[in-house]
Amino acid sequence: MDRTVFANGKSLSYGSEDQVLVAASLFSNCFFLERDAEQRAKYLDDIERNWVEGILWADGAIHRLQQGFDLELEKRKTWTVEWTQKWKRFVGNKKQAHVQHRVEWNKWEWRFFVETCENRSLVTGYHLVGGEAHIDRVFNSDGYGLKTCILIESGLNFAKGQMPEFASSHGFRGNCKLVFGVSTLRRAIQELLDQTRPHRADWSKQLRQFKEDRYPWKQKLPVEYRH
Description:
The protein is mainly alpha-helical and 227 residues long. It is 47% helix and 8% strand. It is built from 9 helices and 6 strands. The strands form 3 sheets. A two-stranded antiparallel ribbon has the order 1-4. Strand 2 and strand 3 form a beta hairpin. The longest helix has 21 residues. It starts with a strand and ends in a 15-residue tail after the last helix.
């Protein structure tokens, strides 16, 4: 069960008289995060409109990541104060979550990954801003490294964490982990796009109708049972 009405950037409580609840799949509920009905429709429209270009870019970035990492070449590039701060923040977040033992890549590999991704999702190619971008392991059983990590939308990462396909990487080796993760998540998003396309444009209208007539099913009840 998911909430669809927000105020001041926060979803209203489940018991609020102004709240409208809808039945949603676990994937959808995680994927949309704190987006109201109108924002959800726009989000999916943006992804779908840029799907072909986004996939082409993402596949190119994945190819560059899989070509191999040249440590000596990376070390010749200037390591700035800004990169030091970013690296400390990444490692610090893992320490705060008590998972610093999972950090397997060095700072050079990490920077190469971040620069290659260009703040775009490796699944959709969607441009990500600030907290929208999330670096995480493809499989929950792995550490953080060049062959095990993916940069994706924070909501998609939340949804991925609930999917049994990503519980363990047992049986997977090398580059196939990233390819499997990307292809699996793309199929899930494509399915969501296909399912919502026929009625996505009417979501805001439907929400207004729900607010105006919160209990339309009452009209089907005998008069003596309507309260």
